[in-house]
Amino acid sequence: MDDTALDLWKAFVAAPSPSGFEQPVARLYRNYVEPFAHKVTTDVLGNVSAVINPEASLRFMYAGHMDEVGFIVHHIDEAGFLFFSTIGGTDVATEIGQRVWVYGAERVLGVIGRKAIQTFQSSDMMQTPTLKDLWIDIGASSREDAERRVRIGSPVTIEAEFALLGGRLAVGRAFDNKVGLLIGAELVRRLAKDNRLHPDVGFHVLGTVQEEIGSRGAKTAGFNIAPHLALAIDMGVAMDYHVRGQRIRARSISAEGRVYPKVQLPIRSFSTCSCENCD
Q1: Catalytic residue chosen out of the listed positions 68, 95, 211, 212
Q2: Residue at 87 is within a domain
Q3: 3-class DSSP state for residue 101?
Q4: Global pTM value
Q5: Catalytic: 211?
Q6: How would residue 118 be classed by pLDDT, with cut points 50, 70 and 90?
Q7: Would you say residue 167 lies in a domain?
Q8: Tens-place pLDDT, residues 185-240
Q9: Does residue 154 sit within a domain?
């Protein structure tokens, strides 16, 4: 990965984009692809489409979703604590004690709290926490103090910025699916630079919205573009970890390392061609 792509990836990760609030990442993607694409549009739902050869009769659609899992404030109590719901699916147990960003009139730092373990009853120790047991503390002294900075409906993301692990692995928030968005942005840049795409092939590269709550953006874009072939890129689940001494492997990963949906068989000629081009 060159420095240009790495810097773009870091910018994508840093920009908040819970489903329904994708605008910061959408602006980054649009600004990046505009110098290279022949046409860039944003539909009413918020999908950003960068097109090379927009008038071509054969249409290929690539989609990487811009949105991420997050939270939304639904109540502020008299003490100034924020209560929240999820946007997309999350594991509540991993959220306890996390630092978060709340996006109101300004970006506000908070921390997710739960009652102290010293106050637990025996029944508490046996139960998985639920969202109603958690709150966000932004340091407000009252509801009025909190409402000066945030409001009901403010989106929330985990405060987890891009970093390297051991010099060769990366960690950060919302790699699902800002990696897919990055690949799309780089496809536009490199196809424009190489200028080898056949003029009869229209290449539609989309940053789509609201995938985490039902793939709404990709479905809408598919109807709008009516592609002859479409490819949606997303992240798989990490399965190369140990559980009680046994190494777990993802069943959907082929011998060559490619990942296929459970209900779909790969087109051999297409996958072979794609991998040769990647090499």
Answers
A1: 211
A2: yes
A3: strand
A4: 0.84
A5: yes
A6: confident
A7: no
A8: 999 999 999 998 999 999 999 999 999 998 899 999 999 999 999 998 888 777 77
A9: yes
